[in-house]
Specification:
Elements (H helix, E strand, L loop, with lengths): L1 E6 L5 E5 L4 H10 L6 E5 L5 H12 L3 E4 L5 E4 L7 E2 L1 H4 L9 H8 L1 E5 L12 H9 L3 E5 L2 E5 L8 E3 L5 H12 L4 E5 L5 H12 L3 E3 L5 E5 L7 E4 L4 H13 L3 E5 L7 H9 L3 E4 L3 E5 L10 E2 L11 H9 L4 E5 L9 H7 L3 E5 L2 E5 L4 E2 L2 E3 L3 H13 E2 L1 E5 L2 H6 L3 H7 L3 E6 L1
Parallel strand pairs: 2-15, 3-14, 6-7, 10-11, 18-19, 22-24, 23-25
Antiparallel strand pairs: 1-25, 1-26, 3-5, 4-5, 7-9, 8-9, 11-13, 12-13, 15-17, 16-17, 19-21, 20-21
The chain binds uridine-diphosphate-N-acetylglucosamine.
Uridine-diphosphate-N-acetylglucosamine binds next to helix 1, helix 5 and helix 6.
Length: 420
């Protein structure tokens, strides 16, 4: 198991290219299951979760051709299985996004229940309820969700009780090949959902209302060949910006889309950063100043992303003043707090709210990753701490960040990966 060794105290300064978005890549890869020809996707990030999804598609009968530059060609002429097995699903909950495509194409699917998850229960009841509206019958046996729609899927009106990103994606993909029109109300508006919708339209789907909370899908008989380039990862981008801000540094991000990052950029400006945006570029400069603590409440897009919460807690821990951070999306997403406390962070946790009193600095310590974004916050804390921090269980980070230590080194960080 790899560890990251960080010697903190350096101001970050430099340029980083942002990778393709993990959360857009996963459902878009799954969408290839619905195309009886070949599709090409570009700007795919090199991540463990992407590898897992490609393995899963391989098990279902998809031919995969990857190239060095982050493009992939997928050919799903004939699927050989409709089963997403436990050994893959347990390592990546997002495997559930094959459910909608398999039902659309094969009218049946068996997806292993993902089991426990570090950041909360993360059920899939809303996915199931919505797909039932489209005519799918479900049973849960032997740890698998088994869905069948012998007569095919039928368009219907779906209203989500709660906004769900992968739930919206599953129903969207299922509806594309359903008979008739589907309307999804209270749909997730995350840019990754929109990227999936644009990709599906390129492949012949008829989806309107993209980017709004009301998606209208007119079913088509078949999708066709096509290609699509995946949007930049706004969470990776935000993580580097927060790292630069926490170290009082400067950073230039390229291949990024600032229009999808309003909530993060506004909070960083509130923290005292000077931010300049170009069409595909963001420059952040703290001019050597200590950040000011900011208040945060996570929300669905366009609100403040839950995937950026932990990183801001780390920044607040070394900021001037006190910031209150409230998590509203997941019920157990504060596991970075005890680790940050071990590094000297003055943080009081009250239910889903962390009150963070900023200190001049933190102390390096051995810390343990618990989930993807919690790990990112520990890396940021290590970059600002005095002395050495070792972050254990780096596999969490590798699920969602492409060569994070190389990119941080390019910004001047003293960080290395140690193979244990
Ligand atoms: C996606 C993202 C994840 C992000 C999250 C919220 C991917 C691969 N992952 O996860 O990075 O943190 O959105 O922006 O895109 N819920 C239910 N029943 C359901 C489905 C969800 O109760 O059937 C609840 C969840 O427990 C959670 C909330 O709804 O409390 C939102 O979850 P959801 O948007 O579904 O998250 P994911 O799609 O799993």
């Amino acid at each position: 198991m790899d560890r990251l060794l960080i010697h903190g105290g350096r101001q970050l300064d430099g340029e980083v290219r942002v990778s393709g978005a993990k959360n857009a890549a996963l459902p878009i890869l799954a969408a290839a299951l619905m195309v009886p020809g070949s599709v090409r996707f570009h700007n795919l990030p090199h991540l463990n979760d992407v590898t897992t999804m490609i393995q899963l598609l391989g098990r279902l009968g998809v031919d995969v051709l990857l190239d060095e530059r982050g493009s992939v060609e997928l050919s799903a002429k004939a699927l050989t299985s409709v089963i997403a097995p436990y050994d893959l699903v347990r390592t990546m909950r997002a495997s559930i996004v094959v459910l909608g495509p398999l039902l659309a194409r094969c009218h049946e699917a068996e997806v292993s229940l993902p089991g426990g998850c570090a950041i909360g229960a993360r059920p899939v009841n809303l996915h199931i309820k919505a797909l039932e509206r489209l005519g799918v019958e479900f049973e849960v046996t032997d740890g698998y969700i088994k869905g069948r729609a012998p007569g095919g899927l039928k368009g219907a009106k779906v209203l989500f009780d709660k906004i769900t990103v992968t739930g919206t994606e599953n129903v969207l993909m299922a509806a594309v090949l359903a008979k008739g029109t589907t309307v999804i109300e209270n749909a997730a508006r995350e840019p990754e959902v929109s990227d999936l919708a644009y990709c599906l339209n390129t492949l012949g789907a008829k989806i309107s209302g993209v980017g709004t909370d009301r998606l209208v899908i007119e079913g088509v008989a078949q999708l066709h060949d096509g290609e699509h380039s995946i949007i930049p990862d706004r969470i990776e981008a935000g993580t580097f910006l927060v790292a630069a801000a926490a170290t009082r540094g400067r950073c230039v991000l390229t291949e990024v889309d600032p229009s999808q990052m309003d909530a993060t950029l506004m909070k960083l400006e509130e923290a005292g950063a000077t931010i300049q945006c170009g069409e595909r570029q963001i420059t952040l400069d703290m001019h050597g100043r200590r950040p000011r603590a900011v208040d945060i409440r996570t929300l669905e897009y366009p609100g403040f992303a839950t995937d950026m919460q932990a990183q801001f807690v780390a920044m607040n821990a070394v900021a001037e003043g006190t910031g209150s951070v409230t998590e509203t999306i997941f019920e157990n997403r504060m596991m970075h707090i005890p680790e940050l406390q071990r590094m000297g962070g003055h943080i009081d946790l009250n239910g889903a709210t962390a009150i963070v009193r900023g200190r001049e600095s933190l102390r390096g310590a051995p810390v343990m990753s618990t989930d993807l974004r919690a790990s990112a916050s520990l890396v940021i804390a290590g970059l600002v701490a005095e002395g050495e921090t070792s972050v254990d269980r780096v596999y969490h980070l590798d699920r969602g960040y492409e060569r994070i230590e190389e990119k941080l080194r390019r910004l001047g960080a003293d960080i290395e990966r140690v193979r244990v």
